[in-house]
């Protein structure tokens, strides 16, 4: 079967050369194992961190070994009593077209309830990140102003909609006019700013948020976050979810240091990892699924066709190629 391995560790922005395609054998099944065929592979910004050496909250990928990520797969053969041919499962699995995995590492999904790919986005990790980050850290109250960076992506587009469900005023920041249009027309954001064409983001935020910013859901960091913090309200909450603008930085950028603003305005800033909430995932999935069913929550997927496009799709995350969740259909 075909597999994709980490060929080398990137310095700065990764390229296709950091990946290599190889052929490998699919081993025969032992008791308790299942033979799987990948259906949908998730590509996620956090995987950039795993391409580096050194410890983080997930261990680094190993050079010469397959990349791994969240996958929706179909069972083709099983020696596990818990799975049968045709079952759809979700797990963290290697970037291989076909693979063998232990039954206990797999979670069955019900694709009669929702399309299988939803379990990588709205009913999966990115939906839960939006849900817990906004509600637990942001604690939105009706009438408050919420700003979301990376607003047109998998996490951001859900954050904005949940903020609307909670009766907040929502401003999204994203990187193209098509994304701005989508935020307003499809997701119901009140305002949206294109940070790539707007030369005064700080001023644009001030204009869009006359009562200042009560909650900032930060997916990107860097100068965009500096511009939001310059408009922060007293007793605001900042949910520090991602810092994608810094993931490929080769030097630590020196920002305008706005901590005095956070201090004098009594702002609370908290970083989080969605895994912190794993014991509450069932609650989150149930609520997200309900909102989807009720038509209160909609979303977008960018589905790239072909296993061989995995590296390109992953790299595309750092160039804003995706609207909503970036997924590869194997
Ligand atoms: P997205 O779907 O948002 O995809 C990434 C998007 O980031 C791109 O489409 C692009 O949109 C934007 N982007 C890329 N480079 C830059 C840059 N230099 N400056 C500003 N924006 C940039 O990804 P996810 O929704 O999966 O993840 C969003 C963030 O949340 C990431 O930072 C990720 O690491 C983080 N995350 C954190 C989790 C946690 O547990 N804390 C869990 C999941 C995600 P544009 O066109 O607008 O530039």
Automatic annotation (TrEMBL):
CDD domains: PGDH. The keyword Hydrolase does not apply. SMART domains: PKS_ER. Residues 16-328 form the Enoyl reductase (ER) domain. It comes from the Bacteria. One of its GO terms (molecular function) is oxidoreductase activity, acting on the CH-CH group of donors, NAD or NADP as acceptor. It holds the Pfam family ADH_N_2. Keywords: Oxidoreductase. InterPro entries: ADH-like_C, ADH_N_2, ER, GroES-like_sf, MDR_fam, NAD(P)-bd_dom_sf. This is NADP-dependent oxidoreductase. It comes from Cryomorpha ignava.
């Amino acid at each position: 079967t075909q597999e994709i391995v980490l060929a080398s560790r990137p310095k700065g922005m990764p390229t296709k050369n950091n990946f290599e395609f190889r052929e490998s054998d699919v081993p025969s099944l032992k008791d308790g194992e299942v033979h799987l065929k990948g259906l949908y592979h998730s590509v996620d910004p956090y995987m950039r961190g795993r391409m580096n050496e050194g410890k983080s909250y997930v261990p680094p990928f190993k050079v010469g070994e397959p990349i791994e990520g969240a996958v929706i797969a179909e069972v083709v053969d099983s020696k596990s009593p818990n799975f049968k041919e045709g079952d759809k499962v979700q797990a963290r699995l290697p970037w291989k077209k076909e693979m063998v995995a232990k039954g206990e590492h797999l979670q069955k999904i019900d694709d009669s309830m929702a399309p299988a790919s939803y379990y990588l986005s709205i009913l999966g990790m990115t939906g839960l990140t939006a849900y817990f980050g906004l509600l637990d850290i942001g604690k939105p109250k009706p009438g408050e102003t919420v700003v979301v960076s990376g607003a047109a992506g998998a996490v951001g587009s859900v954050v904005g909609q949940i903020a609307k469900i909670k009766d907040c005023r929502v401003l999204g920041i994203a990187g193209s006019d098509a994304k701005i249009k989508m935020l307003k027309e499809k997701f119901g954001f009140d305002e949206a700013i294109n940070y790539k064409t707007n030369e005064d983001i700080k001023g644009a935020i001030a204009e869009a948020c006359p009562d200042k910013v009560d909650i900032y859901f930060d997916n990107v960091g860097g100068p965009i976050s500096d511009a939001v913090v310059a408009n922060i309200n007293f007793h605001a909450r900042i949910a520090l979810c991602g810092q994608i603008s810094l993931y490929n930085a080769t030097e630590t950028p020196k920002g305008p240091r706005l901590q005095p603003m956070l201090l004098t305005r009594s702002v609370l800033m908290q970083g989080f990892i969605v895994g912190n909430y794993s014991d509450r995932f069932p609650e989150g999935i149930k609520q997200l699924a309900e909102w989807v069913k009720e038509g209160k929550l909609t979303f977008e997927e960018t589905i790239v066709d072909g296993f061989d496009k995995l590296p390109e799709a992953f790299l595309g995350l750092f160039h804003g190629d995706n609207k909503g969740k970036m997924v590869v259909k194997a």
